[in-house]
TrEMBL record:
Name of the protein this chain belongs to: ubiquitinyl hydrolase 1
GO biological process: protein deubiquitination; proteolysis
Keywords: Hydrolase, Protease
Transmembrane segments: none
UniProt cross-references to Gene3D superfamilies, sorted A to Z: Cysteine proteinases (3.90.70.10)
InterPro entries xref list: Papain-like_cys_pep_sf, Peptidase_C19, Peptidase_C19_UCH, USP, USP_CS
Entry's EC annotation: 3.4.19.12
Reactions catalysed, as given in the entry: Thiol-dependent hydrolysis of ester, thioester, amide, peptide and isopeptide bonds formed by the C-terminal Gly of ubiquitin (a 76-residue protein attached to proteins as an intracellular targeting signal)
GO MF term (any one): cysteine-type deubiquitinase activity
GO CC annotations, alphabetized: cytosol; nucleus
Tagged with keyword Cell membrane: no
USP domain sequence ranges: 11-320
Length: 321
């Protein structure tokens, strides 16, 4: 594909066989500006995943040599990844969400370790991606409500046919009846009781990563199959399940990692990102403009329509000020 002069400002990434899972996530996170700025400013004498990612982003940014005809070769970062985690040290197709979780947690650990040698106590990875959810359990006998807070760096949402991201978030917080073998031990009643449980968002993150659970294990087939249901995602979003209105901020879609194919072990990943008032599509080393109306082609199909294999898989939303 021949790029225009404008598109040459954006770097495609070379695929080393089946590394589209890596390229797509790296591109999506690059366009999370606050994350990119922190990575670009990172310095460490010892090579690790964050130093190699920083070098890669500098090449993509044009700050250091390494981009040829608009294409960057992330070989050093990939070699470092394989050295730190043998799971990725093969030619298999890997899950982009698994890679996203691994790389973000690894970077957070590196930053946390660096904080031991400084007066700063704020881990910028957690500051950007970490939110707080509250598990609320209501005893149906005494009506006592117990709560427990948990941190999260992304939310995995169940998908259904013809659902929107907003309603997938609502379903994430729907009440669940705890009965029969799953009764709840109530500390007030001092015995197991039927209860209702739900999850609510106490503090949403600045950068919201939403993972659509499009792969489901089928016992009869003994493998994962893909759910090609239509899941629409808007360019703007508000949380439907917040505790209070303090953090009721508007989110804007800035990037989406999409999966193309029918199984988790095959297919292809690509990414589209917001850039200014438009959108760009990154398909490994290829970069092209994406008309905003074409975003709907990544919603997926439905049970009564021909299914689409190109489906949104990981969505990145940024909190507006």
């Amino acid at each position: 594909m021949t790029k225009t002069n404008t598109l040459l400002n954006y770097a495609g990434l070379q695929n080393f066989g089946n590394t589209c899972y890596l390229n797509s996530v790296i591109q999506a996170m690059y366009f999370c500006e606050s994350f990119r700025n922190q990575v670009l400013s990172y310095k460490c004498d010892k090579e690790n995943l964050l130093t190699t990612l920083s070098e890669l982003y500098k090449q993509m940014n044009g700050n250091i040599p390494g981009k040829q005809n608009g294409i960057v070769h992330p070989k050093r970062f990939y070699n470092c990844l394989c050295m730190h985690n043998e799971i990725f040290n093969n030619d298999n197709e890997h899950d982009a969400h698994e890679f996203f979780n691994y790389i973000l947690n690894n970077i957070a650990d590196l930053v946390q370790n660096d904080l031991k040698h400084t007066s700063c106590n704020v881990n910028w990875v957690y500051d950007l991606f970490q939110g707080v959810m509250t598990n609320e359990t209501t005893c149906l006998c005494c009506e006592n409500i117990s709560t427990k807070d948990e941190f999260f760096i992304d939310l995995s949402l169940e998908v259904e046919s013809n659902i929107s991201i907003y309603f997938a978030l609502k379903n994430f917080s729907k009440k669940e009846l705890m009965c029969a073998d799953s009764k709840y031990f109530c500390n007030v009643c001092k015995c197991k009781q039927e209860a209702k449980r739900r999850i609510r968002i106490k503090k949403p993150p600045k950068l919201l990563a939403l993972h659509l659970k499009r792969f489901k294990y089928q016992d009869s087939l003994r493998r994962f199959t893909k759910l090609n249901y239509k899941v629409s995602f808007s360019q703007e979003l508000r949380f439907p399940n917040l505790i209070g209105e303090k953090y009721n901020k508007l989110y804007k879609l800035i990037a989406c990692v999409a999966h193309c194919g029918l199984t988790i072990s095959s297919g292809h990943y690509l990414t589209f990102v917001r850039q200014g008032n438009g959108w760009l599509l990154f398909d490994d080393n290829a970069v092209e403009n994406l008309p905003y109306w074409n975003i709907e082609s990544f919603f997926g199909g439905s049970t009564n329509m021909p299914t689409r294999s190109e489906t949104g898989y990981i969505l990145f939303y940024q909190q507006t000020i």
